[in-house]
Design brief:
Layout: E1 6-10, H1 14-25, E2 29-34, H2 38-48, E3 52-54, H3 57-63, E4 68-71, H4 78-87, E5 92-95, H5 102-115, E6 119-122, H6 129-139, E7 146-156, H7 158-162, H8 173-184, E8 188-196, E9 206-213, E10 218-227, E11 237-243, E12 246-251, E13 259-260, E14 264-265, H9 278-291, H10 302-320, E15 326-327
């Protein structure tokens, strides 16, 4: 890769644009943008100075193979996009979740293994300084033996309107499932979950799940879309780790920046700020170092990305069955959710 990598971003929506800004903030050239909507392609490319745009991945690959790509399309399209890029030999950073179904996620993993091409699941919280600090404390044994992990994530009702077909387990709760794996350092064997809806909405607005890990740790996850519509969509989250020797938590209940004027705004300056930086930039920096061989160790092993989808699907299924337990068969390739094992 002479003169730095040539990167493509697939998907020009809000998060795709943040990937573009993060790459550029790191001094990396975003050479191409792929989006099926012409107006979106033109707007994002003009704003960020992207020289080439394409309506499809096939058109991108026909014009030349990029050195790396971020996949930022909706989860239902991840399989088609990621497999096409991987088959062409392009390393990919796939936004969470790895895919919308277990079958699609397994197909992405199979393609990456068959072609020997890097596929990094985009679990951004493993790159957040606060969440990493808690993980380091757990790994160092400062909390003793981990007994339980608890998390909650509250969002505005807007998400029900914006994502009417996406179950919270496969949208927002993916973050909490991944943190549970990371902190418990053990795969999940069984799931029980409950979901509730609001009048007029078929999509759950409250999901409560209990995960039982192979090492005996119990994780509790709660996600809600019950805050008023006008509430800023800031990171109103809490995760706690309970150990035999202590308790640790990361509390993001209050936004880093809050502007209360004619309207209330809480821009994200911690995880994925619109102009680049934050945990997203750290995630992309790690991805690029994986691409060029400078970092042999995966923060998010690919097997963990697949296991998160398995757990999320089990949560949705258990909730639909009024809390009936769902077993998740152990995977021989699962790393045990250790973020410091190579893929």
């Amino acid at each position: 890769m002479t003169n730095g990598p040539r990167v493509a971003v697939i998907g020009g929506g809000a998060f795709g644009a943040r990937h573009v800004a993060a790459y550029q903030g790191l001094g990396v050239r975003v050479d191409a943008l792929v989006d099926s909507d012409a107006a979106t392609r033109e707007r994002v490319a003009a704003r960020h100075g992207i020289p080439h745009t394409f309506p499809t991945v096939a058109d991108l690959l026909a014009a030349g193979t990029p050195d790396a790509a971020s996949v930022c399309v909706p989860g239902s399209a991840h399989r088609a996009v990621a497999v096409a890029l991987i088959t062409a030999g392009v390393p990919v950073l796939v936004e969470k979740p790895l895919a919308a179904t277990v079958a699609d996620a397994a197909a992405i993993v199979a393609a990456a293994e068959e072609h020997g091409v890097l596929c990094q699941p985009g679990h951004i919280l493993r790159h957040s300084p606060a969440h990493r600090a808690l993980h380091d404390a757990v790994r160092a044994g400062r909390l003793g033996q981990v007994l339980a992990v608890s998390s909650r994530r509250d969002r505005p009702r807007t998400l029900t309107r914006l994502f009417p077909d996406d179950h919270p387990a496969l949208l927002t709760a993916v973050h909490d499932i991944d943190l549970a794996l990371w902190y418990a350092q053990s795969p999940v064997l069984e799931v029980r979950a409950t979901a509730r809806t609001r009048p007029g909405s078929a999509t759950p607005v409250l999901v409560w799940a209990e995960l039982r890990h192979a090492n005996g740790v119990v994780s509790s996850i709660r996600n809600s879309y019950l805050l008023p519509e006008h509430t800023p969509n800031h990171t109103s989250d809490l995760v706690e780790v309970y150990g035999t020797d202590g308790v640790g938590h990361v509390d993001l209940a209050q936004p880093t920046v809050l502007v209360q004027a004619d309207r209330t705004e809480a821009p994200d300056w911690l995880l994925s700020p619109a102009d680049g930086g934050g945990a997203l930039a750290a995630e992309i920096r790690h991805f690029l170092r994986r691409v060029d061989g400078g970092e042999p160790t995966a923060v998010v092993p690919l097997a963990d990305g697949l296991h998160v989808v398995q757990i999320a699907a089990a949560v949705a299924d258990s909730a639909a069955a009024d809390g009936a337990p769902r077993r998740i068969p152990p995977s021989p390739s699962l790393t045990g959710a250790s973020a410091d094992d190579p893929t």
